[in-house]
Specification:
Layout (H helix, E strand, L loop, with lengths): L22 H11 L4 H8 L3 H8 L10 H8 L11 H11 L4 H8 L3 H13 L3 H14 L6
Helix pairs in contact: 1-3, 2-3, 5-7, 6-7
Length: 147
């Protein structure tokens, strides 16, 4: 009896996230839409290929210094950064500009612990006097943060 060999061909499923919820899912969606490999994205962002793998599999998130490059790669700011309270706006601004707490505090002329308290405090409080003083200081350095 003759032996028949059958070869099946199909495209590998892409598993493009339709409604990305994490920064990693946004990266994966954009990468697959652009037909890029993880190594290609790693070169664009300036990280190791394993970083892209870890971000896409939600094992880790990009450090703050890579967020601006990730946003540039995506072409938009993903809706995963909450920015409703003043504390959230501070964190949002700091992250999308790739600033550490230390760097942003230095730019504001305050110490890092004070900025940390502002970011934490303004998640839950609405102290008007502190808020007014902080808003005046922020407006000098980052006018686009105040909405």
């Amino acid at each position: 009896m003759p032996i028949c060999q059958i070869t099946l061909k199909a495209q590998k499923p892409s598993h493009i996230p339709q409604n990305p919820q994490s920064i990693g899912e946004h990266i994966r969606k954009r990468r697959l839409e652009q037909n890029l490999f993880q190594a290609d994205v790693a070169r664009l962002i300036g990280v190791e290929e394993t970083s892209i793998y870890n971000w896409e599999s939600n094992r880790s998130n990009p450090s703050v210094k890579y967020i601006p490059k990730v946003i540039k790669f995506l072409g938009y700011i993903p809706e995963i950064f909450p920015n409703k309270t003043l504390g959230e706006q501070l964190i949002y601004y700091r992250k999308i500009h790739g600033l550490s707490q230390k760097k942003m505090a230095t730019n504001l002329g305050i110490d890092q612990g004070t900025l940390r308290r502002y970011e934490k405090y303004y998640f839950t409080s609405n102290n008007n006097l502190m808020r007014q003083k902080l808003l005046l200081k922020l407006d000098l350095f980052f006018p686009e943060i105040i909405k």
